[in-house]
Amino acid sequence: MRTRIASPLAETAAGAIAADVLRSCVHCGMCNATCPTYHLTGDELDGPRGRIYLIKQALEGEPVSRLTQSHLDRCLSCRACETTCPSGVEYHRLLDVGREVTAKATPRPWAERVLRVAVRAISLHPWRLATLMALGRPFKALLPAGLKGKLPTRVAAGAAPSRQHDRRMTLLKGCVQSAAAPHINAANRRVFDAVGVSLTETPGVGCCGALSFHLDAPDEGRALARRNIDAWTALLDAGAEAIIVNASGCAAFIRDYPDVLAEDPVYAARARRVVSRLKDPVEVLRETPPTPTRAPREPRIAVHQSCTLRNGPALGDAPAALLSSLGYDPQPVADAHLCCGSAGAYSLLQPEMAKRLRTEKIIALTASQPQTIYTANIGCWMHLADGSPVPVRHWLEAVDDLLDKPA
Ligand code: SF4
Ligand code: SF4
Fold first, then answer.
1. Burial class (CB in 10 A: 0-12, 13-18, 19+), 165
2. d(CA 167, CA 156)
3. pLDDT for the residue numbered 133
4. Are the C-beta atoms of residues 74 and 82 closer than 8 Å to each other?
5. What's the gap in Å between 238 CA and the centre of ligand 2?
6. What percent of the chain has pLDDT over 70?
């Protein structure tokens, strides 16, 4: 597709990224086949091809309307469209540029601005979320349905391993996850201890920046990215083997750090080094699988493929394959390419679309009557658990269940 990006964007690294992506699109529309929002609305402008057109117009200097912004807002950033594009169009890279340009050109209604500021305030300070959850849990039964689901039942974290191993890796604590589900990181540490890896959280590393970046505060997201890069760089220099991120949504944004910091060549280079050492825990465990000390108590499971693990790193099947090798019996799940509707803050910002997608996903996940549903991302975990008749857990918990706990 021919394009002429307007100045001054044309002279920037972001403009170059956008022009490259636009040129690679041949406008065939095959991507619409796997787009969850096009699947729901049937509107061309709610599919990737239509959104690419809208972004192209905006970047070429055409006026941007609220309608354009709303079609871009409805995109889940799930990247399912990229898996069916025959031309290898990296749609998500264009979307990030397009969203930043439209956000600057089109003021949002105050209610949308307030919600976005509130979500960012929580991601920057997870203790605020932990406090709100602690205050809300006793009154959960009295809360409206939309809020109840944001209060997952607290799970005991269990004992932490005390052994020191030669292999050392660092773990992203996370913002929402550290407040809502600290037991997931605890399970990750025990499982890695069982395969001879010491896993520690890095002081100075916090939120990955995705929520800020995607909620109209890109410079705040960039500042968080730089802070994390500095802390991880020091740790890699000191001999850490890898950076482990067990929330696949956070990992997806960290993989984009080189683009996010494209205008800053020094940090973009540091970001590339960080990304080269970034691993999902399943990548470590499939190379060094743990030895179970017991059989699964509830072996019949369904494994949800988080979009951020499936589309991009192409690891969607990996957790189910690992759990199968450890004695679980993962059931087939239809339409794995369709997002569950969680997508960062999407379930808060686009509740109707998110609910419809979740309903479809839960029908697919429970069709084979699993005893438990497993996922690889805190956002999917919270969103699915809110509507599922079957318990939802992180897949690391399934591995942890098969191992002896540290004394
Ligand atoms: S499938 Fe790829 S090339 Fe075709 S319209 Fe979609 S993004 Fe463009
Ligand atoms: S990222 Fe997902 S929701 Fe957005 S256009 Fe692509 S497939 Fe559709």
1. middle
2. 27
3. 77
4. no
5. 39
6. 97
Pocket test for ligand 2, best of 81, 85, 305, 357 (most atoms within 8 A of CB): 81
Q: Is the CB of 323 under 6 A from ligand 2?
A: no
DSSP annotation of 404: P
CA distance 294 to 239: 34
pLDDT digits (tens, 9 = 90+) for 188-225: 999 999 999 999 988 888 899 999 999 999 999 999 99
pLDDT digits (tens, 9 = 90+) for 221-246: 999 999 999 999 999 999 899 999 99
Q: Strand, helix or coil at 388? A: coil
Q: Is the CB of 199 under 6 A from ligand 1?
A: no
How far apart are the CA of 51 and the centre of ligand 1, in A?
11
The domain spans of the chain are 9-105, 292-400
Instruction: Return d(Cα 402, Cα 293) in angstroms, integer.
Output: 6
Atom 7 in ligand 2: residue holding the nearest Cα:
35
CATH level 2 (architecture), domain 292-400: 3-Layer(aba) Sandwich (3.40)
Please name which of 156, 168, 162, 163 lies closest in space to residue 244, comparing C-alpha atoms. 168
Distance separating alpha carbons of residues 269 and 288, to the nearest angstrom: 30
- Tell whether ligand 2 has an atom less than 6 A from the beta carbon of residue 35: yes
Sheet holding 392-394, edge to edge: 329-330, 300-303, 372-375, 392-394
Mutation choice for ligand 1 from 1, 21, 25, CB with most ligand atoms inside 8 A:
25
Cα separation, 63 vs 105, in Å, equals 8
Q: 105-147 pLDDT, tens per residue?
A: 998 999 999 999 988 887 778 778 778 777 777 776 666 666 6
Q: How far is the CA of 52 from the centre of ligand 1 (A)?
A: 9
Spans of the chain below 70 pLDDT = 140-149, 407
219, two tokens? 């410079």
The atom number, within ligand 2, closest to the CA of 37 reads: 3
* Closest to 284 measured CA to CA, from 194, 388, 382: 194
Domain 9-105 sits in CATH at 1.10.1060.10
Beta bridge partners of 303: 374
